[in-house]
Amino acid sequence: MSKFGTLVMGPAGAGKSTFCSALIQHLQNTKRPCFYVNLDPAAEDFAFEPDLDIKDLISLQDVMEEMSLGPNGGLIYCFEFLMENLDFLTDPLEQVTEDYLIVFDMPGQIELYTHVPILPGLVKTLMHGSLNMRMCAAYLLEATFVIDRPKFFSGTLSAMSAMMMLEMPHINILSKMDLVKGQVAKRDLKRFVDVDADLIDDDPARKVATEAEQKQYVDPASPHSLMNGASFHKLNKAVAELIDGFSMVSFLKLDVQDEHSLGAVLSYIDDAIQFHESQEPREPKEFDADNDA
Ligand SMILES: Nc1nc2c(ncn2[C@@H]2O[C@H](COP(=O)(O)OP(=O)(O)OP(=O)(O)O)[C@@H](O)[C@H]2O)c(=O)[nH]1
Ligand SMILES: [Mg+2]
Fold first, then answer.
1. Keywords in UniProt for this one (predicted)?
2. How far apart are the C-alpha atoms of 81 and 61, rounded to whole Å?
3. ipTM over 0.85
4. Which of 27, 125, 201, 243 is least enclosed, having the fewest CB within 10 Å?
5. Which residue segments constitute the domains of the chain, with CATH numbers given?
6. Ligand 1: which of 18, 53, 78, 257 to mutate, judged by most atoms within 8 Å of the beta carbon?
7. Rounded to whole angstroms, what are the CA distances from 281 to 33, 35, 99, 264?
């Protein structure tokens, strides 16, 4: 029997916990069971009480106080501790049946997704251990990033970094769409959703380098050369072309207030983990003449 889950990831404040709550509410509205796992050892307030909370194993506050660590070092310590005590996570998940969607709410420290090798180990255990969980990553990036194009591509690289680290089905999501409504034309938004490298050239905020600035740029091979606006632009364009040329990243738009938007994101998650293909066909409910009258 398989289990099904999604890891909700992304930078600090991207809207992960808000999305988890909205998704749980949507699952409840559509009569689907859900198991909510909080893996953020610093999270405090929840719209839905987690079914499993890493804070019952270890809390970031305690680690920082007792180990004299800062918030980022403390978080890594918490995850290393979780990896040494994986039964805390796997035992309760053993009981979860295949009709459930298991939603993992992750912390926002970006290093977890970029270069610390803890998450790949955790994902391997969940997917390839006895739980046999089919999982996908839901990586959130705040939609306001589209206002600043180099920042958008930088955020896209962080999503790619997580994709490369985790080697699991991956869905990228532009969260907080309500914040850019009316600010970005639909036509322009399309070019962020299916990433278009020309966004870098068309950037209305782009400062064109003066002739003097162009000359300032010396030798790219020299460690003492300073990159100026023109050379940063070339670098940004090359990165954007790489993303565009290989169709490596595209985004779904998410407005947590909109049930259709949540439903659309959920259907991508379901497809990625092949949720519906593995469900037993349900018996249609018996017709109850008394109640239906
Ligand atoms: N306008 C708007 N605000 C949002 C939305 N989602 C989240 N927020 C706000 O953004 C802030 C961060 O939201 P969270 O859901 O806590 O973000 P997070 O990614 O879980 O944050 P960390 O766990 O701290 O990394 C909160 O103030 C939310 O109210 C959204 O869709 N629209
Ligand atoms: Mg959160």
1. GTP-binding, Hydrolase, Nucleotide-binding
2. 14
3. yes
4. 201
5. 3-195+249-277 (3.40.50.300), 196-247 (no CATH)
6. 18
7. 16, 21, 11, 22
